[in-house]
Amino acid sequence: MTREERAEKWFSNISGAESISIESKIEICDKAAKRMMIIILGLLTLEFILLFVVGGEIFTRVADFLNRISEGGHTGNHSQGLALTGIIVFLPVFIIPLTAAFSYKNNYLKAELAKIVTSRENTAGKESALPSFTKESESDILHFDTLNFKLAIIQVLMYDLHLLKPEFDIYAFADQYKGKNIDTDSDAIIEPAMNFFKEMEIPKNFAPYVEMLYMDGGNDVYMNIIPQWDGEDDSFDLNEITLEELQQFPNLKKANLMSSDFDKVKEVFEAANIAVEPL
């Protein structure tokens, strides 16, 4: 199966997939395949370790069982039967890794498709020149009480719509940083990068451009703060939000959130008439 055929097959049952190019599908599938392999190998390794810890003799018993079956014949049918028996014996070990990997694949494809669609909807009709700011408008800055909400807004304005410039890049930032060396392979928050976003001022003129939020573990803004973040912890969860913050964005109508206290923030989003769903 070629990469093109795989991409078409994997996206065949995903609603809205026809709206993206085959190149985008291939790129997404390549990333998904690598992550699936990591999941399968990781879970298989864990299973074998657990089996060995619980009772290592199980491997000896399985080997003895297969050896007994293999004795007494070398015909084609016998070999096929032996192979089938081996598959049946080891099949339970593969069920969990394969199920987890394919479940992850479907969720990942949907999430990546949603990111592309969100970006397109945000950019639709916005190819006109950026607002020209007077000195008065430059001082008219958006206010944020919640840093993780601000980061979600920056994702849209800087990395999806490319309105906030220059785009922050952790590798270029690390090369120019005058303080302590920055580890760009870090799996923890890089404080100078986080401080950069904390101190960033966003003019209110950009607020109408934000129509949708899609918080995802692979968002560029997060990768520039924790380059090796796996998306599995709550570092960027949106667990607090104020109505005043949301009301600054008159065209924000839909949001998909990472949150470990979704019911709490859901009330605030709904009060602002914004449709909200957990990621």
Automatic annotation (TrEMBL):
Keywords: Membrane, Transmembrane, Transmembrane helix. The lineage of its organism: Bacteria, Bacillati, Bacillota, Clostridia, Lachnospirales. The chain crosses the membrane at residues 38-62, 82-104. The keyword Membrane applies. It comes from the Bacteria. Residues 142-276 form the DUF6892 domain. The keyword Transmembrane applies. InterPro entries: DUF6892 (IPR054187). This is DUF6892 domain-containing protein.
